[in-house]
Amino acid sequence: MKPAVKPSTSRRKFLAQASATVVAASVPYTFTASRSLAQSKSQRLGFALIGVGGNGTRTAPVGKQFADLVALCDVDSNHLAYGNQLLCDGKADLHADYRDVLTREDIDIVQISTPDHWHTKILIEAMYAGKDAYCEKPLTLTIDEGKLIRKVQQETGKVVQVGTQQRSSFNFFNNALAVIADGRLGKLSKITVGIDAGGWSPEIPVAKVSEGLDWDRWLGPTPKTEFRYLADPKKDSARNYTNGHTHFRWWYEHSGGKLTDWGAHHIDIAMLAIAAAGQNNDPVSVGGKSKHDVDFKDGVAVQKNRYNTAREFDLNVNFAGNDVVINIRHDVDNGILFEGELGRIFVNRGKLVGKPIEDLVAKPLPDDSIAKIYRNMPMQGNDRDAHWANFIDSIEKRTLPISDVHSHMKMLNVCHLAGICCRLGRTIHWDQASETITGDELAASMMSRPYREGFEIDMGN
Fold it and tell me: Boundaries of each Gfo/Idh/MocA-like oxidoreductase N-terminal domain copy (predicted)?
């Protein structure tokens, strides 16, 4: 349960005013359709969905507007059967091994929607196989994986769109960035990022692997471990506990908890805002307080039968110049509160509010404000629709998409540093130029993890 925390008086007042004045920022912008939508069936690209779970089945229907979904791949035959009926009327080619997908000449694009620990290996091998890729966030499990992905992307020239679709949110996030870029908040001083508390579990016993699931292949590059599962006593399937499907994000072995889940969305926008304000967004340190439900020794969870990612956190990210700080919290509204010398605004997926937003009625932003935020690329639709359209347009033009791997990793490294801070319980210092943790040998060793034998990355040699 989310802890009951009373906001400060000023914050309560601000949020009350904000809720009463939900004002959409009206910024003229031309939405341009991607040429692919007008292509004939024979000209459309073929794509495959690798990872047919929740995110996969939510995002693939959007992709079907722009390309033909011809194949599904998953290590769970139940996911394959369900996804085939839901997405393809039972007509898709089904694969248990993603490598079979990568050899197919009729597949131009892969959508990678696996658990986080598989992203890097599949993405790198897909690029070497000549595929462009839409990969869900967080792009990597570690900092060093990001360095490798960026190297391979530059080497191969493949287009990779990271699934941080808030970068394609015309209604809220892009408008917030445009307001900040136009100087309406002045110099930013503090950005509070609310990402909710992490997952909780009781002790989860070892259990028989679910029928149809290839557990060894699901684990892939991560250490061999026993499958755990506990059904919710109230028979609420959404509250079942496991170290497998859906709940993988609550285990450091497979993810980074809330810090790389919601953090990968909101910290992304926060860092873009710092740059939009003309301030330095090179991180130098992450420190603060956190709470786990298990004990840690040298950054590794001691207990193996409960969720082990951070449940609570109050972390500060400092940047070169020290003129702005990002405060990452579990106990405030999900969203981003920007505070500057001239005012403040709050944005999430449901609203964009604050006096600088109300002032747009009398003093609108310049007509090209959103276009500049969107790198002057054509935008169609909003959120996932626009994000996929941008991906296809970037494939056609062979340009970096709006959520490219290079800018994504600068943000995601902050999420990873925050996770290392929580696991070690101390401030982590970062050198952006060398992309290295400094002054802490143990923390620096956590920038990478070994791959399990037999699941190393195939570098295309």
Answer: 46-163
Amino acid identity, position 368: D
What is the arithmetic mean of pLDDT over 4-25? 38
Q: Pick the closest to residue 414 from 216, 274, 227 (CA basis).
A: 274
Tell me the one-letter amino acid at 357: I
One-letter amino acid identity for 349?
Answer: R
Q: Are 315 and 421 in contact (CB under 8 A)?
A: yes
- d(C-alpha 304, C-alpha 300), whole Å: 10
Domains observed in the chain: 1-29+170-374+405-461 (3.30.360.10), 35-166 (3.40.50.720)
Do 251 and 243 touch, CB atoms closer than 8 A? yes
pTM of the predicted model as reported, rounded to 2 decimal places = 0.92
3-state secondary structure 18-58: HHHCCCCCCCCCCECCCHHHHCCHHHCCEEEEECCCHHHHH
Spatial separation of the C-alpha atoms in residues 242 and 229, rounded to whole Å: 4
pLDDT on residue 326: 98
Asked whether the predicted pLDDT for residue 29 surpasses 60, the reply is no
Q: Which helix (H) or strand (E) holds 194?
A: strand 188-194
98 CB-near residues (< 8 Å, 6+ apart): 50, 73, 110, 122, 125
The token duo for 20 is 């009463």
